[in-house]
């Protein structure tokens, strides 16, 4: 098992890779290079290869894990209870995250500290605006259209994870309800696919320190650390909100359930550093499942259902970010918000975060949905673009941690002995 081998060794290698990447990226910048090739383009190319290798596994892994999981538990009378618990914890953790962001932005009032619009290219803003629907109702409608695709193969090829998840849920439920003799071959097939993909994940993980180095170095080389100058309070508001949710709110929830948050944090460490470097919950999914099942002790029965589903539905970090960003833009433009206005923003952040993986440009477009719904200036999106990439790394880490936390909490309520000392 990959994470039992030299448990701390892999994590230490990744941490060293991140530290070196920050140093190297800040030194070489975006222009320097050798033999006519910039270091930035080299980091970008090699980092993308690693990201592609992880992303390559996502669609078949999501489909096989959900179908395999549902085929095993679909006949069980406890399935309805398991699904109810899963969505309860999804909604609870996401709501707690949004409320944490709401408190943070009202305490720090980051919009009142912004000096001016940061330097953002007009084309970058226009590109983001172009991906958004004209109205929030149209954008939400697009999410539901992606949920039920016309062609499952097209959905898989285009990376429409909502469509893949919906089809897999439907297929798995149907497979569990047909005659066992007829379903035996299919169940064995999907089980074999799932375990084979997990083994492939082991192979890809061997390149993890190198891939993390290239991805982080690329970001630092292109963005630098000077991007925070105009947006330091917004950056701090989001970052402190994410930290408070991840290291205070969720641990309190664990304590209330009689679980150790520190063991869970230690168990999920490889997945968290992968999420931070890739900025993708989907790309991190193979490692997340490995950590939840092998290190946190959640059964395959629950892990294969809760974790892949949470990758597209349970986006606590993104929901917090959307709430803070919308309120920051309102504060910047001097818009006074009543309690009811803020409540609507909380509700929209909760709803849009659940479908954020199914629309282009992820959280940025979800923020535009909120801005359009509230009547805030849509061009305010330009304010946050300079720091969005760095914050994307942070909120993705929280998304993965929250998703894994829900899996552990569901398993605990089902009587499983999770987070045991190994």
Overall description:
The chain is an all-alpha fold and 422 residues long. It has a single domain (7-413), classed as Sodium:dicarboxylate symporter (Proton glutamate symport protein, Orthogonal Bundle). The chain has helices at residues 7-28, 39-73, 79-108, 122-131, 136-147, 152-157, 161-177, 180-205, 208-223, 232-256, 261-278, 281-295, 300-313, 316-332, 339-354, 362-374, 385-413, and strands at 33-34, 37-38. It is globular and about 65 Å long. It starts with 6 loop residues before the first helix and ends in a 9-residue tail after the last helix. The model is unreliable at 1-7, 117-125 and 131-135 (pLDDT under 50).
Identify the overall geometry: globular
CATH class label: Mainly Alpha
The total beta strand count reads: 2
Helix content: over 70%
Number of helices: 17
At the fourth level of CATH, the homologous superfamily is Sodium:dicarboxylate symporter
């Amino acid at each position: 098992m990959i994470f039992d081998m030299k448990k701390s060794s892999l994590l230490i290698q990744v941490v060293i890779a991140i530290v070196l990447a920050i140093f190297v990226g800040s030194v070489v910048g975006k222009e320097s290079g050798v033999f006519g090739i910039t270091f930035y383009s080299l980091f970008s190319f090699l980092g993308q290869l690693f990201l592609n290798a992880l992303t390559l596994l996502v669609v078949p892994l999501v489909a096989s894990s959900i179908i395999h999981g549902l085929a095993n538990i679909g006949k069980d009378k406890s399935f309805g209870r398991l699904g109810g618990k899963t969505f309860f914890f999804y909604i609870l953790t996401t709501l707690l995250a949004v409320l944490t962001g709401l408190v943070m932005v009202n305490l720090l009032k980051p919009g009142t500290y912004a000096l001016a619009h940061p330097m953002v290219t007009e084309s970058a803003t226009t590109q983001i605006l172009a991906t958004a629907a004209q109205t929030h109702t149209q954008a939400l409608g697009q999410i539901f259209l992606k949920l039920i695709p016309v062609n499952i193969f097209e959905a898989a090829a285009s990376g429409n994870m909502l469509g893949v998840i919906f089809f897999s849920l439907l297929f798995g439920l149907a497979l569990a309800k047909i005659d066992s003799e007829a379903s035996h071959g299919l169940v064995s097939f999907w089980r074999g696919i799932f375990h084979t993909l997990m083994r492939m994940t082991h192979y890809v993980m061997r390149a993890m320190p190198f891939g993390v180095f290239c991805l982080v170095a690329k970001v630092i080389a292109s963005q630098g650390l000077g991007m925070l100058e105009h947006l330091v309070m917004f950056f701090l508001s989001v970052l402190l909100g994410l930290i408070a949710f991840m290291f205070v709110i969720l641990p309190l929830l664990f304590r209330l359930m009689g679980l150790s948050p520190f063991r869970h944090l230690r168990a999920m460490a490889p997945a968290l550093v992968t999420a931070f470097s890739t900025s993708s919950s989907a790309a991190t999914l193979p490692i997340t499942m490995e950590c939840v099942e092998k290190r946190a002790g959640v059964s395959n029965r629950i892990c294969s259902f809760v974790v892949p589903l949470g990758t597209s539905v349970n986006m606590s970090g993104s929901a917090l970010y959307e709430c803070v960003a919308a309120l920051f833009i309102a504060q910047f433009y001097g818009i006074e918000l009543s309690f009811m206005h803020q409540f609507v923003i909380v509700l929209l952040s909760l709803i849009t975060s659940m479908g954020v993986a199914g629309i282009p440009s992820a959280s940025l477009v979800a923020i535009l949905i909120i801005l359009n719904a509230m009547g805030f200036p849509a061009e305010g999106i330009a304010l946050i673009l300079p720091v969005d990439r760095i914050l994307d790394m942070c909120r993705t880490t929280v998304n993965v941690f929250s998703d894994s936390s829900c899996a552990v909490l569901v398993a605990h309520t089902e009587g499983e002995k999770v987070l045991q000392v190994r």
